[in-house]
Amino acid sequence: MVKQILPAILLVVFLSSCSVLKQMNFTSNRQATAVAAPGPQAKFIDNISVTPQATIDKTDVNSGPKETFTTGSLNIAETQVVTGEAKRLADMVAGRSDVIENASPVQLKYAVLLNTEVESLPNKVLLESVDTWYGVRYRTGGNTKNGIDCSGFTVAVYAAAYGINLPRVSREQYRISRKISTTELQEGDLLFFNTRGSGVSHVGVYLGNNKFIHATVSKGVMVNGLFEPYYLQRFVGAGRIDDKQVMASN
After folding, report:
1. Which residues are annotated as catalytic?
2. What one-character-per-residue DSSP string does 46-62 give?
3. Measuring CA to CA, which residue among 177, 187, 183, 196 is closest to residue 239?
4. Residue 14 DSSP label
5. Residue 30 neighbours by CB under 8 Å, 6+ apart
6. End-to-end CA distance of the chain
7. How far is CA 149 from the centre of its chain?
8. What proportion of the chain, given as a percentage, has pLDDT over 90?
9. I need a labelling partner for 155 at 20 to 30 A (CA). Which of 17, 97, 166, 182 fits?
10. Nearest to residue 130, comparing CAs of 118, 121, 140, 139?
């Protein structure tokens, strides 16, 4: 009997020892939960508040001056302008092509001599009238292809191109002509010069683009520019011949 009770007493004494109890580190489920790593506490949906976000008023974005940005393409109005301009240029080129194609050799020749476009040239009859004398040598008092002077040349040209009989000398031609400004010059008008220091002594026929044809002492019938220094310094004036003035002078 004593042998059975003694082990039970020894077990109670062992369990009640403080040192033994301290070495046995028991942890309950509740304590384990308390030891868990700290962190932010979870919020329930009822406790969550929503802050309204700022909205953009579309009317504010669209307000203010509007700007047009090009992206390499043309709008309708610009396309119409470009198309119209292209058509105008095409018509102009086509028109010039027709003129050049139908131009006579004499018109092409004088386009080069006058340094101008074929379509701006004087009438074909006038060009043909002056060209028959082009290159003919100068001869005082002459009126043939063997030699001709300045006033003889203008007499021959006016008779062939206009059927008008001019006075034989340049001074008389100047007297009967209607005086005009150089800004009024047209093909066929007469240009008068003082080459001898004693009044009008030289005459030529205006062709256009400030160029005229005349019989020169040095090179015969040729084209020169009105604003070449020699002729500009000796220029007296321009005259236009009208049928009534010629008839009145006879």
Report:
1. 150, 202, 214
2. GG---PPPP---HHHHH
3. 177
4. H
5. none
6. 188
7. 47
8. 52
9. 182
10. 121
Length of the chain: 250
Compute the distance between CA of residue 36 and CA of residue 78 in angstroms, rounded to an integer: 76
Provide mean pLDDT across the span 136-161: 97
Radius of gyration of the chain (CA): 56
pLDDT of 65 reads: 52
Give the residue, 58 or 81, on which the prediction is more confident: 81
Helices 124-131 and 105-113 cross at an angle (nearest 10°) of 80
Q: Which of 2-6, 99-103, 179-183, 227-231 has the lowest mean pLDDT?
A: 2-6
CA 141, 144, 146: angle at the middle one, nearest 5? Answer: 95
215 pLDDT higher than 50: yes
The token pair that represents 73 in the structure block: 């393409």
- Dihedral angle, C-alpha 236, 237, 242, 244, nearest 10 °: -60
